[in-house]
Amino acid sequence: MSAEPRINDRIRVPEVRLVGPSGEQVGIVPLAKALELAQEYDLDLVEVAATARPPVCKLMDYGKFKYESAMKAREARKNQAHTVIKEMKLRPKIDPHDYDTKKGHVVRFLKQGDKVKITIMFRGREQSRPELGFRLLQRLAEDVQELGFVESNPKQDGRNMIMVLGPHKKKTEAMAEAREAQAARKAGRQPQEEPKQEQNSAPAEAN
Asked: Of the candidates 18, 115, 140, 197, which lies 20 to 30 Å from 171 by C-alpha distance?
């Protein structure tokens, strides 16, 4: 079955509930009258609710309507954001420099609107000190609290301890901000016109 609505002479019903070009309700009219009005307005008669009794039809420029619908669908696909979960692994006794590096990655992921799964990996005797991992996760959550929140509290999973951070901003918002920032950077890189130097109007002195 075609997804395209029936238009003009493809509509096969004795009468329709007609909607005018500006959305005004015309009422129930014979199909012949609706087609006559469509010709007068130089528009198409488009069936917009085929299951209604009688079917609802609207006067519109169907070609323009299809084009605008396609553009809206394309823009929606462009802005569509899929939830992505990034993963970052840390050791309980992580070096300060490594911690800062890992935290930087977490910050970047949250700014992009992605969730981050933080995994603390315990080895050997470290497994008897789960509080080390818990404190590390708490510290990380506090360090990035302006960008994200604890979506899943720390919990032990075998030799690992896992916590999930969620971004405050939605993916679509983060993408929009990134595009705006990129546009601003491009605008800032455009060369500015150099001011013209004033020419000295005084005649040069003769030697």
From this structure: 140
CB 29 within 8 A of CB 15: yes
- CA atoms within a 13 Å half-sphere pointing along the CA-CB vector of 26: 21
Angle between helices 130-143 and 96-111 (to 10 degrees): 50
- pLDDT tens for the chain, 207 residues long, are 457 889 999 999 999 999 999 889 999 999 999 999 999 999 999 999 999 999 999 999 999 989 988 898 888 776 665 667 899 999 998 999 999 999 999 999 999 888 999 999 998 888 888 999 999 999 999 999 999 999 999 998 888 999 999 998 877 677 777 778 778 887 776 544 444 444 444 444 444
> How many alpha carbons fall within 13 Å on the CB side of residue 53?
0
Shortest CA distance to 31 belongs to which of 8, 60, 50, 61? 8
